[in-house]
Design a protein that fits this description.
Elements (H helix, E strand, L loop, with lengths): L4 H11 L11 E5 L2 E4 L4 E4 L2 H4 L10 H11 L10 H14 L3 E5 L2 H20 L5 E5 L8 H5 L4 H4 L9 E4 L4 H5 L6 E7 L1 E2 L5 E2 L2 H14 L2 E5 L23 E4 L10 E5 L19 H16 L2 H22 L3 E7 L2 E6 L4 H9 L2 E2 L1 E3 L3 E4 L7 H15 L1
Helix pairs in contact: 3-10, 4-10, 11-13, 12-13
The chain binds pyridoxal-5'-phosphate (PLP).
Length: 395
């Protein structure tokens, strides 16, 4: 007899390290913008595996591209060339306007590469080892020691100190707080172009442009983390394109492979300082994941995914503005494109749970925010469906 849902959940909890308080759902398969659990219950997915499944589930052409590569060659190591890797790198270069690509397995590893690049860039200039990085309060960049060191969250950092030295934290959207920390030791300023985990905070244009100016004047590298907000989510292929600037380094991951583990850091020629011996990865950007990313980038272009985000994102914005106006429980609404959040006057855990019971998956950010990072292919009708369920759950 097949095991029931509870038995699988127990089995998982007995074996896995308890680093997540998982929802009481055992997911089984997906179709379009819907997920199905083991018992066949259907959920409208407004989380997309945390901003990963940009194209939803089983988008035409995607599965075949992955399957074909499985049949050909999954892995080569980076000691060899392969067609999918060359193609994915060129396409990523072209849509980003950056010069060089290094593929990784995750967003965290992309951040590690970015930090290492900044350190070497500064070391090449003066040979000293006491350079500083300015990061932002409320940021999230990953869980490795390097990425955690620039993550502005005391709770995440505390048990693991000492972390990297020379990291200072400024206030997001407060240019003066950054200026106060800049000195001749500063080698990089790192931030999310749109803060995700910290509660969905959009950068002011004056802040972003101000940072770019400081970096240019003082020869500091501007590192933008677009692991979550990149790949079309904000209505531009990359969020920095909304600001008319180009960073020195940008990190990408979540939606790049639409479900297979691939990330990347991209840099300008100036910041392309890592050379053989400096950095590497066994799996990173192997033919399988690059075939997926390459297909994703083709689909984005052919099916005008970014234009679609602009349209549906604007519709989601309108509907969430209305919802916010209707209830005292929601105290703020923020975001851009299909990366938006509503802030509640208390932790919205009970609302998230009720939504699941009613067949809607949403996730939180920070303590009081429900975050909307649906597949980029959702239609207006799905926004309506989501709002209707959410309204019932709030009342
Ligand atoms: C998710 C996330 C990361 C970490 O990416 P992983 O793939 O989980 O390692 C880094 N930065 C931002 C902004 C993220 O949202």
């Amino acid at each position: 007899m097949e095991k029931n849902k509870q038995a699988y959940m127990n089995e998982a909890e007995e074996a896995l390290l308890h680093t997540y308080n998982r929802f009481q759902i055992v997911l089984d398969h997906g179709d379009g913008v819907y997920l199905y659990d083991l018992e066949g219950k259907k959920y409208l997915d407004f989380a997309a595996g945390i901003a990963v499944f940009a194209l939803g589930y089983h988008y035409p052409g995607y599965d075949d591209a992955v399957k074909n590569q499985v049949d050909k060659l999954i892995h080569t190591s980076n000691l060899f060339y392969s067609v999918p890797v060359a193609e994915a790198a060129h396409k990523l270069k072209s849509v980003s306007g950056m010069d060089r690509v290094f593929f990784t397995n995750s967003g965290t590893e992309a951040m590690e590469g970015a930090i290492k690049s900044a350190k070497k860039y500064a070391w090449q200039k003066d040979g000293s080892h006491d350079h500083e990085i300015i990061a932002m309060k409320g940021s999230f960049h990953g869980r490795s020691i390097g990425a955690l060191s620039v993550t502005g969250n005391d709770h995440y950092q505390e048990p693991f100190k000492p972390l990297l030295s020379g990291i200072k934290f400024a206030q997001y959207n407060d240019l003066d707080s950054v200026k106060a920390l800049v000195n001749e030791k500063t080698c990089a300023i790192v931030l999310e172009t749109l803060q995700g985990e910290g509660g969905i905070y959009v950068a002011d244009p004056s802040f972003m442009q101000g940072l770019k100016e400081i970096c240019e004047e003082q020869d500091i590298l501007l590192i933008l983390d677009e692991v979550q907000c990149g790949m079309g989510r904000t209505g531009s292929m990359f969020c920095y394109q909304n600001y008319g600037i180009r960073p020195d380094i940008v990190t990408v991951a979540k939606a790049l492979g639409c479900g297979v583990p691939i990330g990347a850091f991209l840099c300008t020629e100036k910041a392309a300082v890592l050379t053989p011996g400096d950095h590497g990865t066994t799996y990173g950007g192997n033919p399988l994941v690059c075939a997926a990313a390459s297909k994703v980038l083709d689909i984005f272009e052919q099916d005008h995914i970014v234009d679609h985000v602009k349209e549906v994102g604007a519709y989601l914005y309108e509907q969430l503005e209305k919802l916010t106006a209707e209830t005292d429980k929601i105290i703020a609404h923020r975001g851009m494109g299909l990366m938006q959040g509503i802030e509640f006057n208390e932790a919205p855990g009970a609302i998230v749970k009720k939504a699941q019971d009613k067949g809607l998956i949403v996730i939180t950010a920070e303590n009081n925010v429900i975050r909307f990072v649906p597949p980029l292919v959702i239609e207006k009708q799905h926004v309506d469906e989501m709002i209707a369920i959410l309204k019932e759950c709030i009342e």
